[in-house]
């Protein structure tokens, strides 16, 4: 949780292949720079444009974002900054997709993002710049309680964005889609899989159920998911369950057994095994560390 990235590193042999990091949060403050080529990665990405503006190429379509805006998009869509103006700076925030889906925003809001739209807040808040400075300072401490607080505040900022006026560029409209098969041609199936998992991860889920929901053969569903998301369906479901369990360990006094069952793990032994393998600590030790700090 404390290993936040500051840069999405690309594979030089393929600009559309990231070198991991899909499960890490990220934060970066910098002067906007023109990118030599498009890239993609699995995060939900926030860009704050403080006293600067930018032109992007999103899946082959040009969009212009005025200064003093906050944008939100699924970075799995190929994107590239192609022009910038102004003397300000921008802040990039990377949110793992499974974390974003566990925050339970409205279906309409999530669906708009997963369909490939770029959401633009109609205005920044007076405290947005100072908030990002506070987040940057808190992350530098590597204090686990402060890091969790930063994550909570980012979640709440996105929640407020979802409730306030925002605009889009109609990138997901049928007229805006290319007739040729694009790099994101399988995303409609991925969106359906993600939606089904997000709604049902706390229950018993099989690959067959996921495949039936999308009308795909189970083998094809697994291969497509792994190709796009860089992880297996099973691993992705466990990530969502772990996110849910972490929140319950921090925010409730429920027993570890009840948390294991509520998050969708079939048994406490399975929960302990997966939790310890992922975080190198037990659920109870994790809870104690947060409480003590």
Automatic annotation (TrEMBL):
Q: Please name the source species.
A: Thalassomonas viridans
Which Gene3D superfamilies has this protein been placed in?
Homeodomain-like, Jelly Rolls
Signal peptide interval: none
Record keywords = DNA-binding, Transcription, Transcription regulation
Domain HTH araC/xylS-type, chain residue ranges per copy: 191-289
Task: Identify the domain of life.
Answer: Bacteria
InterPro entries xref list: Homeodomain-like_sf, HTH_AraC, HTH_AraC-typ_CS, RmlC-like_jellyroll, RmlC_Cupin_sf
Q: Which GO terms describe its molecular function?
A: DNA-binding transcription factor activity; sequence-specific DNA binding
User: What name does UniProt use for this protein?
Assistant: Helix-turn-helix domain-containing protein
